[in-house]
Amino acid sequence: MNPAVPEASLTALMNLLAEQALLSMGVPHPMVKEAPPANPVVARFYVDLMSVLREKTTASRTDVETAQIDEILYQLRMRVLDLKPAVEAPGTPKGQV
Fold first, then answer.
1. Residue 44 domain-assigned?
2. Number of structural domains found in the chain
């Protein structure tokens, strides 16, 4: 295995989704100087994907993986609450994105 590529695992998948969520929230990647523009809709999509992953892997996670996904989801949900809504989706009541 290439040392620059991590081993494929549930933890790696959780971290990949969390990284994408953070980038969508406008948090800069450590290797990039400038923060990307925040996209709350996409950020919420990645948080929702993480929730689906948590739900679908309930029976097969280790205790450590469960603690990791719960902590990642908590942190992402707290950050996404701070985002200002983007352009509201058609048919969405005002203030509910």
1. yes
2. 1
CB 74 within 8 A of CB 47: no
CA distance 95 to 19: 26
Along the chain (97 residues), what's the average pLDDT of each consecutive run of 10 residues? Answer: 80 95 89 84 96 96 97 95 64 49
d(CA 24, CA 79): 11
Q: Which domain holds residue 21?
A: 10-81
- Residue 14 CA from chain centroid, whole number: 8
94 within a domain of the structure (yes/no):
no
In whole angstroms, give the CA distance from residue 97 to residue 92.
7
CB contact at 8 A, 85 and 40? yes
Query: Which region holds residue 38: left if phi is over 0, alpha if psi is between -120 and 50, else beta?
Result: beta
Please report the pLDDT score of residue 1 as a whole number.
Answer: 57
Residue type at 7? E
